[in-house]
Amino acid sequence: METREEVQILGAIGLRRRYRVLVAKLGLDGHDRGAKIVARALKDAGFEVIYTGIKQTPEMVVRSAIQEDVDVIGISILSGAHMALVPEVLRLLKEYKADDIPVVVGGIIPWDDAIKLKSMGVSEVFFPDTPLSHIIEKIKELAEKRRKGLE
Amino acid sequence: MKSFKLYLTVVIFIKGRYLGDYSEDFIQALARALKEWHDEMVRAGYKDRLNMFLTDSGIEIKTVYTPLDIASTSYFEKIGLPGQYPFTRGIHYNMYRGKIWTIRQFSGFGTPEDTNKRLKYLVEHGETGLSIAFDEVTLLGLDPDHPLAIGEVGVEGVSVASLWDMDVLFKDIDMGKITTNMTINPPAPVMLSFYVAVARSRGVPDHMIGGTTQNDQLKEFIGQKTYVFPPRPALKIGVDVIEWSIKNLPKWNPISISGYHIYEAGATPVQELAFTLADGIEYVREMIRRGYDVDSFAPRLSFFFVAGINIFEHVAKFRAARRMWAKIMRDWFGAKKARSMWLRFHAQTSGVELRAIEPYNNIIRVTLQALAAILGGAQSLHTNAFDEALALPTEFSAKLALRTQQIIAYESGVADTVDPLAGSYYIEWLTDKIEEEAWKIIDRIENMGGMLEAIEKGYPQREITESAYRRQREIEEMRRIIVGVNAFKGEILENEVKIPLLEIDEPSVRAHQIARLRKLKSSRDQAKVNTTLTELERASSRGENIVPYIYNAAISLATLGEIMGVLRNVYGEWSEPIIY
Amino acid sequence: MSRSQIQALLEKALEGDLRAISRLISIVEFPAEVDPSTIETIMRELMKRGGKAHVIGVTGAPGVGKSTLISKLIAYYRKKLYKVAVIGIDPSSPFTLGSFMGNRVRMQIHSSDPGVFIRSMATRGVRGGLSASTVLVLEALDGLGFDKIIVESVGAGQTDIDIINISHTVLNLVIPGAGDEIQALKAGLMEIGDIYVVNKADKPEAEITLKQVIDVLNYESFIRSSGWRPRAVKVSAVMGMGIDDLATLIEEHVEHLRKSGYFQEVVKKRRIYGSFIVIKHIIESRVEEIFSSSNKHILEMLLRGEIDPYTASLQILSEVLGGRR
Question: pTM of the prediction?
Fold first, then answer.
């Protein structure tokens, strides 16, 4: 992906592919402040962000991610239901043969649960107060890796 | 009238520069002194450590405040005495000297049995009012056996789906003696029906049933987001509850017009204030549209604000809020009773200002936030537990949160006189400034046609998302310091990570609740339930006040999900407008 | 991609495999990033099966409720067992080329439905109007067998004109109190839709707005080239009112197109227009190149004000293109 400066020089060439990220809020919790901030930061960093809104089920998240052919799935979950819902997302991704799409999770996740989730296949767990720049960096890495895998 | 003539004389004399309480000679002398002071300061080489000091609302703060900053403030007009218009200093004459604020800790988790135990624990340790936190499933009006409930039952609050659950929740609690706040919004009429039915069944007369249903449907679209119905039906349901409550429960606050969630969603203190009052205006207008005299219901309206860590800004916000609401009620809506002009409010210390890193720091943060609420004259207060950013409170952290309030109340002396910060040049200036900025936003909303229109257009949602993003950038760029997070980062000690946290065994809570639901359904008169639900559907399609019909369904043992299901069919469901 | 990989992908997609459909769409979305022969192969296979989908374009100012309306239409079509695809277009930041796409929010309830395919596309630096990507994705979805393809745009002006040129049925959404829009309609400035939809019918002013729109439509002779006289209806997308009537009207329109043979005319026009859009974008993307490879002397004169932009451009073009020839 081009840098901001490169974009300004290159101008309006409409045929370049950007990295795409799905940002979803799993479960019934409606606090979307964090998810929206990350979505906005990703957009400012040049990503195409597909924001699904709140109250998403694992099925909705996975099918949306596949339809949109995203490079990374970002899940925000603050309600404590992550151990019931995130593994379901991973399972469905496998079932749809789309488990090449990396999943990152942010929210209120206790340390031990984070370890468990990563062992199940979640690529990164972001705890509260993780700097945005770190989150963007990690997502960019994962997107790059996935793209290379597709070629 | 005489003082007004005096005003005019002073105005003419000072060429209309100000109308305040100080003499012109004094003001001019001070102005000269201040200029000299400033020049001296520059000459002596004093430099500020930052380019600019700003409040959380972005208001620039000066080095020092003097009478010059409030030169045009008239004490009688703007500040006044407590218990009298414009109520800037407090709604009661002697405030905490008469009665300490209500210590009302928001709590709830697991089964009604679990929460009943915690409620008793809190009362035993000094809480003076109850406040129930419901789980996400209940907040959205679903039953625990709904497919979307998996993983969520009892996790963020208590699961209540029926009259039986409510009865268990208040087992051995005297509902005639203690007041209860229920933080519930779209399902407010259902929870209220459950609560009233249980109280009545225990012989509590209607005029002794005291408490609050949050029932602020409009703010759900701006923050919190536990909305169900689209804005217009949601407003109608909310006002139905106000109407029914005014008629039946003289001691009940049918609504708690909330700013807390708006702030937590990213608003600045000024935005929180403006959006909350704008919501309030919409509710008052709707009641008046239904034919009610403002004095017949206004005394029962209550508010709910955040207490943030920028102490002075929030104190000023509370004072401005009282002054603004009094003006709105008296001048916009023609209220005659003083009680109609009172802004009674509950405060909660901000959760979003607490951090997961170095959680014990939060004890200090909560203390400062609580201080802001008390110096600001809150009627009741909830203090967060220090582990709030990680999980629901344990008994230990809940007790500590209680103690925070008690120490402030009884050891610090701040409750010994009314509005102690009044007269501070900074506080009075800041109160005026916040009021000024909030009016600008309210004017904009009025021009849009009111809060409902503004919400449908996405205006407050956009503003809040912007503020939230800006705040995050400030933190990332080190323009806003959060101790332990982006500055003064220490080695993480073991006891800061391995804190005993409250764990909820969700599958077993869910199983327990589903079992009770099954038992309830098999022992009730199904035909009766069906009849009440059909009547509810008919009444809601016809635009009637739905609360009596909901009450009938509730006492026939219809479940929360069943009742809300009828309403979902009639009113539809809402998904929010796209923001960017 | 190898020939056999393309074949395998096409087969899976035509069988309805979600992943395959999505990957295929991604490939044709960025034609410049693969071998031209890949695009040719894929599109040839798809287009021979295409030309059947009913393309519905939905235009209207931001905030009028397009997404909610589309969500309700999807529900209606799914009841009739139609396969529905939706292309939602959102603006890209001109500086970062990033985009925040929220069209799905109001349609998410359909994400679990295997008969619905929703794809969000960003404008990606295209200055107004649809992009080459949208054209190709549309043809691809047509070839993949979707019965209804709904194109939603947040834009106005050029984007709306493009949508009119590629759609069978154009829905133009307005909300009550839209006085300016009625004026624009009268002045003929507003894009001509087939069906004007007044949303937020739950508001009392909606009836007035509907009347105003109908008056203008009756007064002006806005007959479409297909012979269809535009109609107006009232709905409340949020409350689900009037959706059936609207859908019936849409069917009436497409029936009219089919009977008059105009349905295929639209498909033909769309393909030509699509080509036009692609050529325009290829040229646009070459402008910078042309400019920077031109004679420095001309540029210097332009900078010094010794020559005007028009004259300078003619000279640059004749030099660069002439030289190429």
Answer: 0.85
